[in-house]
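Design job #97: recover the sequence.
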């Protein structure tokens, strides 16, 4: 499967989610390739830290912020991997557009803030464009960095807003705002690996991965 974690809105936690998903799949025995489609190269930096620290399983990673290069590299190496996870930069870029054309699934993280909800319409237009030239792209929105409270009105209002965007489906597997996600990513790890364990964070990630795959 090719999965893109993308949004035209920056600061929604795409890289952290992409890293966690890629590692979760590798821990499940899949041969995973993580592609960093952002010029900032944060995902590649995290994987470099992971490699230098000797953490296993290893994750193949490459950075392609140019759409043409990303497209050609994925097409050439597609059969070498079970899963390809693309971390697309937070803007409408050639890399994001190339990733969408290649992908089976688009995961759109958004936070419970008005700006994030309003920005969903921008990525929805890109989904329409991709579907006009090819069939089969499945698009899902997930609440990321959600308020910790189970009954948060901001979470509920943000989730309800997705119902007004028909281009994608809301996944009821929110990832709540927990410091352990940032702590783990800074070490090139997923929340499934870092010690001490955070059971709730691990359960949230596992629920999201199960829904996607």
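Job complete. Output follows.
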């Amino acid at each position: 499967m090719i999965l893109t974690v993308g949004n035209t809105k920056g600061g929604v936690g795409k890289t952290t989610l992409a890293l966690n998903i890629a590692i979760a799949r590798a821990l499940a025995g899949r041969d995973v390739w993580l592609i960093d489609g952002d010029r900032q190269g944060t995902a590649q930096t995290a994987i470099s830290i992971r490699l230098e620290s000797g953490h296993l399983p290893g994750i193949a990673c490459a950075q392609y912020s140019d759409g043409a290069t990303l497209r050609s590299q994925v097409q050439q190496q597609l059969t070498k991997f079970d899963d390809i996870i693309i971390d697309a930069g937070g803007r409408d870029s050639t890399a994001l557009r190339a990733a969408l054309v290649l992908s089976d699934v688009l995961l759109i993280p958004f936070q419970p803030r008005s700006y994030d909800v309003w920005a969903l319409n921008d990525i929805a237009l890109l989904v329409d464009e991709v579907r006009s030239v090819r069939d089969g792209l499945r698009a899902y929105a997930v609440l990321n960095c959600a308020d910790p409270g189970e009954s948060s009105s901001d979470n509920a209002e943000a989730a309800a807003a997705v119902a007004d965007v028909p281009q994608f489906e809301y996944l009821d597997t929110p990832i709540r705002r927990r410091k352990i996600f940032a702590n783990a990513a800074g070490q090139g790890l997923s929340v499934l690996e870092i010690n001490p364990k955070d059971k709730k964070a691990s359960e949230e990630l596992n629920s999201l991965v199960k829904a996607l795959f």
